[in-house]
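[[Per-residue structure]]
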Amino acid sequence: MPAQGDNSDTPRAISRERACVKKLFPLLLVPAVLTGCAAEPTTVRIATHDSFAISDELIASFEEDSGLELEIIRMGDTGTLTNQLVLSKDEPIADAFFGIDNTFQGVAEENEIVDGEFTAIDYSDVCFNYDRYYFQDAGLTPPTSWKDLTDETYKGLTVITNPKSSSPGLAFLASTVAALGDDYETYWQELKANDVLVTSGWEDAYFTEFSGSSGEGDYPIVLSYASSPSAEVRDNGESQTAALLDDCFRQTEFAGVLTGAANPTGAQELIDFMLSDGFQSAVPELMYVYPVTDVELPESWSAFATPATTTVDLPELNERREEILGSWESIFE
């Protein structure tokens, strides 16, 4: 990202200064104390989760078109991002946000941290992935559903993420409630008894603990996305991983203007840019999620990033959030 500066000698800044002088000139004809024009913001700040990715070329394109410098503030996983924006809402740390999803949207709405609409930027299906090579080498049959993960065959093989801080974790918790009804607590008890590993965020689970991405982790089953196998295509043209595509949770990620933003106009310009063909076309390969607009997908996605076969939803998630998180805590903490 280009270094930040005051842009005082740029053509855009000079143009603004001249406009300011023209507005003030008539006032010189009457007695008045001139305090000067208020400087327009030269920077727009966006708070995101750690998985947000944007190329240098896209940053340069936005900055050239808008005349603004882009500052990206990464704040951990989705839950951490949402909680930090709530805690700082009286003195916003950014102008815009990206990455609050439909599992944490209710928290943002209750705390009124968004000025205006939640704008959908991308979507993905939260599904388990498994390391095909591990199961081939071990002579084991991989699971066909997340409901299989409590079976003794998969004891100590699965890594998930904490639903208190991770949006995939909360999405999976919601999936089990939606699919199993009152039996979801029994499922989680059995999952814990089967030595599931819980990490705080998706990046730790996927890039550190999962054997199918780095090849160094000890867990061949990970909570991730239906599109993740497209990132694991090897030299032989095959993906090392596969996704379990039944009963997944469809996750939508939003962007929006933060209430009390110092530069709300710039924030909206940035959000509009994130809906442009240039940004949307880059979303699949940069973040391995599906764009919300009708742009062409990478060729490999037809083979390795197919959406979920079936999805589940929990419309009452926000109303039941404390209840189901409390149940999870009683089992895992």
